[in-house]
Amino acid sequence: MSSRKTRVYYLTDGAMNVIKADIVFTKSSEPAVNIERDWYLYRSYLAQRKYGLVNDEVKSSSSAILQPLKLLAQYLGSPSSRTTVVEALNSQMNAPIDPDNYGVIIVGATIFIWQQNYEAALRLLHGSKLLECHALMLQVYIKMDRMDMATKVLKKMQEIDDDSVLTNLSQAWLHLAMGGEKLQDAFYVFQELVDKEVITPLILNGLAAVHICQERYPEAESALQEAEHVDSSHAETFLNLSVLSQLTGKSAQESQRYQRLLRDAHPEHWFLSDLDAKEREFDRLSRMFSPSDQS
């Protein structure tokens, strides 16, 4: 290890979104350590939407573990290129995958999740012993409304590392999705992270979601205002503020304002695609059942 010692604190939500990263460069005599350092570093840049930087700095001579990050930078940074990226990814999946190349597994599963191709994501993640891969599987099962399978994955994560922040956070996601009495358990996890000064939009939105489900709207609004202060263009903050404004009886204009902010900052967000599809379907049905013009 060189004289430039490094402290790294890195926390992810399991879907390539950095919750908090405090990274100081490390130089090591061990190549594997340098690769892992760069893996976390470039993922942090992706979370900051610095796609061009990742694309430029990950060279063809870089480690095979880092190469998939270049593909992810293209996918996230250029929505018009996503079809090409997915085709390239599918081509890679047809070849044998090195089980030690966690870059291919995590990035590939992440893109498949973005594409809502959950079966492909699960096939890629299946068999991996990495805690983060288990966290991704848990998220997929939640999206598929398979709480039974998500519970089984959580138990495996607890067997691997019960004290991991990612394990605790995955438990909070599952409890939030299950609702009911589990909401309070989710609240404890999110609140504990906030108390430890892990104050990020993702954590604060998780806390706000619990408050909304418990109809504690003033507390939810406070958490979302803090999240907006931390990151003024965070997608989930806009979305939750829009929902909260409707639940609290505020004007339709305010709710629509947050949706416009979401559309301006994140035009490719899944909620907007779903909303536009539903509006088109509503207009189609309205035309079908509207009274015919009388001549």
From TrEMBL:
A GO cellular component entry from the record: Golgi membrane
Which keywords does this Swiss-Prot/TrEMBL entry list? Cytoplasm, Cytoplasmic vesicle, ER-Golgi transport, Golgi apparatus, Membrane, Protein transport, Transport
Protein's UniProt keywords contain Transport: yes
How is the subunit organization of this protein annotated in UniProt? Oligomeric complex that consists of at least the alpha, beta, beta', gamma, delta, epsilon and zeta subunits.
Tell me which positions the record assigns to the signal sequence: none
> What is a GO molecular function of this protein?
structural molecule activity
Which domain of life does the protein's organism represent? Eukaryota
Q: Name one GO biological process term.
A: endoplasmic reticulum to Golgi vesicle-mediated transport
Q: Which organism is it from?
A: Artemia franciscana
Instruction: State the family named in the UniProt similarity comment for this chain.
Output: Belongs to the COPE family.
**Membrane topology qualifier:** Peripheral membrane protein
The cellular location(s) given in this protein's UniProt record come to:
Cytoplasmic vesicle, COPI-coated vesicle membrane; Golgi apparatus membrane
Query: What function does this protein fulfil?
Result: The coatomer is a cytosolic protein complex that binds to dilysine motifs and reversibly associates with Golgi non-clathrin-coated vesicles, which further mediate biosynthetic protein transport from the ER, via the Golgi up to the trans Golgi network. The coatomer complex is required for budding from Golgi membranes, and is essential for the retrograde Golgi-to-ER transport of dilysine-tagged proteins.
| Pfam families noted in UniProt | Coatomer_E
Name of the featured protein: Coatomer subunit epsilon
